[in-house]
User: Fold this.
Amino acid sequence: MNATLNPTGAAEANARSSILGRLRATATPEPLPLPDVKAWFEAHQRSEDSAQRVSRLRAALEAVKTEVHDTTAADWPDLLLRLVAAKGLRNLLIGTDTPHGAALEARQPANLELKRYAESIDSWRDVLFDEVDASLTLAKSAIAEIGSLIVWPTPAEPRLMSLVPSVHFVLLDVATIHADFHSAVATEGWKDSLPTNALLICGPSKTADIQQTLAYGAHGPRELVVLLRHAAPAQPGAAA
Assistant:
C-alpha cells in the first residue's frame, strides 16, 4: 500500500526547518560589557569622616523608631543593664561563649536572668518563643547610607536570636560603619565567604494591614535598641 502524504504536515515541517535555519544563521551578539561598579561608587563617594557616618546611621535608624545610645567598651554593660531595668525585662538571651556575653555574666546582675543560647531549637522552642524577653547580639558592621545593621549569624549567635525575642539589643562598634553597601561588601570580602544567612536590619519589625495601620512586632522584635560602642578616648600623656 502506498503511504499517503499529508500536505499540511509537510508544510509545517518545512516552515519549522526554515525558522530554525534562520535562527542558526543569525550571528551571536557580543555580550554587553559589565558595568564598572567599583568606579561608579568611587566617583560618587561622600567626603565624610567617621563622626558623619555615625550621624547618618543614627538619623536613619531613629527615623524608623530605633532606640540608639552612645557608649564605650568599658561602659556598655552598665548601660545595657540600666536599659533592661527601665524596660522591666526579666531575662536576656545571650550567645554561647561570646566576649560580650561573658562581660555581662561578669557583672552578675541581681534582677536579670541571663539565658545562654546553648540548646537546639527543637529542645526549647516553647521557651524561646514564650519566655524570653530580650536578646543581645553583636553586629558585624553597619551601612550609613541606608541605615542598616549587618548581623552575621554564627553557631554562637544563631539567626533566631535577632528574630524571636520582643526586644533586640545590638552592640555595634562605630569603627565598622561603612558609607554604603558596596563598601561593606568589598571591604569585608563577601565574595569569598558568606554565611547561610546575612541579615540587614533597618529597624523594629513592622507591618501594615489593608487599612494602612502600622503595627510593630508582628513578625519579629517590636523594639530595636542599638548600642554604639565608641573607642575609648586617648588618655592625656599616653604614648602615640
Q: What stands out?
A: Residues 46-230 form a domain with the Rossmann fold fold (CATH 3.40.50.10420). Confidence is low (pLDDT under 50) at residues 234-240.
